[in-house]
Design the sequence.
């Protein structure tokens, strides 16, 4: 639920609207240079380094504002894994984690365990920044914010390759920076923004290679570096596999239809990406017996339900899902502006549309088609995973599609923009409608920008551990005194516990993510394997589904230990047991 905006938040909102006002004033000064036969117009030639730096500073400022709202970096369960792996990188244990949560990591039988459920690229980048002495969570934040800032020149250059004019490029940047998810995930300890930078850079490099070929000055280096970014993106998020499949399929088809040298070069250089990704497959196969690295639990979700969720999350991505349940004047302004823009496009002449219908296949299968292929393959892949795996099917999974989706939207508007010889009323309708839609879009996202995200798991755990067990003694201080720092602990809410207590931790995982049933014998066995002597159970606000899945753990949380366990400390929401030796 969205919070009431304090004065400082209101001033930020007004600042964003002032930027939109500048955007509106730019409309009447803009000049158009359309080429009807090709549907292209002049790229953003007015974008110099100073203006790009201003846009980079603006996106950084928006993320900083969100940090003020959330009182620090956004951390969720995946974040604790990334930070643990980064800490192990610094300790000379590359791609290892001291928080064992998923079945694949637990199969190693030791802590630290090889990290395979998540790729290690983001943790490596975090550890490089942390080597300067910056705390880990802020090092991860630097990686996320830097990725967004670096994405700005990539978007500007991609817009130029797509022949999106200066006016619509600036609109595109407003849509991107004004999207609340950019600030949410830009302030998060998560790999999503870094993956978004790498995938967008890879697509832009491949587009560069195609444009260079069209100009009869072909270059191989854009394809080589593009392939490198495709491969490395897999090591940041396994979704990089979708990027590889889409680019490989696109250039294979283009090679067959267009039969140009650039397409063949692109197809051949993708062998570099295949080798980098293949190395990840091999590592996972050798360590845990599956190329996927984890998430092997077999599930069968309803296709209809997953498609329904896909539509919802796609809507949230574009229209700020954190506070999107409300419907008020911003939605009306967005709808009215969109209708006016669409009507202006429909009223324009048919000459350009018929000219584009006669474009050669080299033009039809250009950079826009590559972006579209990536979006389509990525969405299809995520829908398949939503049906067959335990991944969290949410907006975060589709967030990396934001730059290509907005680029495709801006390109479509550029093609549909009324030409200079069109009636002035039609052109006015187009620009006023687009400006109104932009205002509505920004106001909708402002609601989500200032919305409460709820407490993080580690905050719930820390709150439970602050419970008093005796005068002057909290549960956390008791653990610090009585459980050695090098001891392995077993716990539900294991990821957050490992982060808060800074100890090697094995998590008791619910059946949503694991095939393991946690009965008496299973818990006893895993404590013996890991030589763990303490079991921590959260039954208050930090309780999770594993207590409902396991009758043994539920009874244990309520004070019924078996003969081999002894209750040694209890607060209102936490119980600590010790193995009887």
Sequence:
């Amino acid at each position: 639920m969205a919070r009431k905006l304090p004065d400082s938040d209101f001033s930020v909102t007004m600042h964003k609207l002032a930027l939109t006002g500048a955007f509106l004033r730019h409309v009447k000064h803009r000049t158009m240079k359309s080429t009807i036969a090709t549907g292209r117009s002049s790229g953003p030639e007015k974008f110099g380094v100073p203006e790009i730096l201003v846009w980079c500073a603006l996106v950084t400022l928006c993320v900083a504002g969100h940090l003020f709202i959330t009182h620090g970096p956004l951390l969720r369960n995946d974040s604790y894994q990334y930070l643990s792996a980064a800490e192990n990188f610094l300790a000379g244990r590359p791609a290892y984690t001291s928080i064992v949560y998923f079945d694949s990591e637990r199969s190693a039988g030791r802590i630290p365990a090889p990290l395979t459920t998540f790729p290690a690229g983001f943790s490596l980048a975090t550890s490089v920044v942390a080597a300067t002495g910056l705390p880990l969570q802020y090092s991860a934040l630097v990686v996320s914010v830097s990725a967004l800032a670096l994405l700005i020149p990539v978007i500007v250059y991609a817009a130029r390759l797509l022949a999106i004019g200066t006016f619509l490029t600036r609109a595109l940047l407003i849509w991107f920076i004004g999207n609340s998810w950019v600030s949410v995930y830009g302030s998060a300890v998560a790999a999503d923004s870094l993956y978004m930078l790498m995938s967008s850079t890879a697509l832009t490099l491949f587009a560069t290679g195609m444009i260079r070929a069209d100009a009869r000055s072909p270059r191989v280096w854009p394809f080589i570096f593009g392939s490198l970014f495709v491969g490395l993106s897999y090591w940041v998020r396994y979704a990089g596999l979708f990027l590889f499949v889409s680019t490989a399929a696109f250039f294979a088809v283009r090679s067959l239809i267009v039969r140009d040298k650039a397409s063949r070069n692109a197809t051949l250089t993708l062998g570099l990406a295949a080798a980098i990704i293949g190395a990840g497959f091999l590592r996972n196969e050798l360590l845990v017996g599956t190329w996927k690295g984890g998430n092997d639990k077999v599930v069968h979700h309803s296709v209809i339900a997953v498609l329904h969720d896909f539509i919802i999350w796609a809507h949230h991505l574009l229209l700020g899902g954190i506070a999107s349940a409300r419907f008020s004047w911003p939605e009306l302004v967005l709808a009215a502006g969109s209708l006016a823009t669409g009507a202006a496009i429909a009223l324009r002449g048919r000459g350009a549309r018929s000219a584009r219908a006669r474009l050669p296949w080299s033009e039809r299968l250009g950079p826009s088609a590559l972006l579209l292929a990536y979006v389509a393959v990525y969405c299809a892949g995520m829908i398949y995973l939503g049906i067959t795996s335990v991944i969290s099917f949410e907006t975060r999974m589709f967030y990396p599609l934001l730059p290509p989706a907005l680029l495709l939207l801006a390109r479509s508007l550029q093609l549909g923009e009324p030409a200079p010889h069109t009636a002035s009323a039609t052109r006015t309708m187009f620009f006023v409608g687009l400006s109104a839609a932009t205002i509505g879009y920004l106001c909708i996202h402002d609601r989500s920008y200032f919305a409460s995200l709820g407490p993080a798991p580690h905050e719930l755990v820390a709150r439970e551990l602050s419970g008093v067990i005796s005068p002057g003694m909290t549960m956390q201080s008791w653990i610090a005194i009585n459980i050695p720092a090098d001891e392995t602990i077993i716990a539900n809410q294991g990821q957050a516990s490992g982060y808060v207590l800074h100890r090697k931790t094995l998590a008791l995982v619910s059946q949503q993510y694991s095939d393991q049933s946690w009965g008496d014998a299973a818990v006893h066995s895993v404590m013996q394997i890991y030589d763990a002597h303490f079991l921590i159970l959260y039954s208050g606000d930090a309780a999770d589904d594993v207590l409902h899945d396991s009758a043994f753990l539920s009874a244990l949380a309520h004070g019924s230990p078996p003969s081999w366990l002894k209750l040694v400390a209890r607060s209102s929401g936490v119980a600590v047991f010790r193995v009887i030796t």
User: Anything to note?
Assistant: Residues 68 and 357 are 50 Å apart (CA to CA). Residues 261-288 form the longest helix (28 residues). Residues 7-449 form one domain.
